[in-house]
Amino acid sequence: MTVIRLRRWLRLWFTFEDRVGPREYFFSGCALAVLKYVGDVALVYAATGRVWSPTDYLSPVASLVAAKLAGAPPALLPLLAIWTLPFLWIGVSMSMRRALDARLSAWFALLFFVPGFSYASMALMSVLPSRAPRDVPVGAPRPYEHRLPRALLAIAAGITVAFGLAFLFNLV
Predict the structure, then answer these.
(1) 97 burial via Cβ count (<10 Å: 0-12, 13-18, 19+)
(2) Which of 115, 90, 102 has the alpha carbon at shortest distance from 29?
(3) Domain locations along the chain
(4) Distance in angstroms (rounded) separating the CA atoms of residues 87 and 13
(5) Fewest 10 Å CB contacts: which of 6, 74, 79, 151?
């Protein structure tokens, strides 16, 4: 029974098969935020001896590097980036599907990347009712479904280029 539940959640997080309603969005967001925070705290503390606080997520990356990650081993930033990737994928893909389920634009999911606004947009999408047609069976293709993987790949490519340029010019 537990394996079946885990498979359902993994399918919800990593595929485009299921609609994302407010309940799934809220509980996934809370659980994954706690998991991400605990992982960040453990990695930063193990590498620097400093404690990562929840308010650090509101700070620009450059100030975090200067304050919290000063003197950290060089491998810490790439390790934090790798640890972050699945959470970015889940957050953006679920936010896109949740926005579409609430009949908002899929572009609304880009607020996921804006510190501060991301929390407000996630809270809003957690309370907006589902407005997608209920007569579409689970697993049936949605009109937008073919565009989501390409959109996420474009976002991933943009982030990769941005981080590459930031490292190239020593901004991070």
Answers:
(1) buried
(2) 90
(3) 19-129+142-168
(4) 9
(5) 74
Q: How many CA atoms lie within 13 A of 120 on its CB side?
A: 6
Q: Is the pTM of this model over 0.85?
A: no
**Phi-psi region at 170: left, alpha or beta (left = phi > 0; alpha = psi -120 to 50):** left
Nearest-CA neighbor of 102 among 155, 23, 28? 23
Give me the DSSP letters along 74-120.
TTHHHHHHHHHHHHHHHHHHHHHHHHHHTT--GGGGGGGGSTTHHHH
Query: pLDDT tens across 93-141, in order?
Result: 899 889 988 988 888 888 888 877 888 899 999 999 998 665 555 445 5
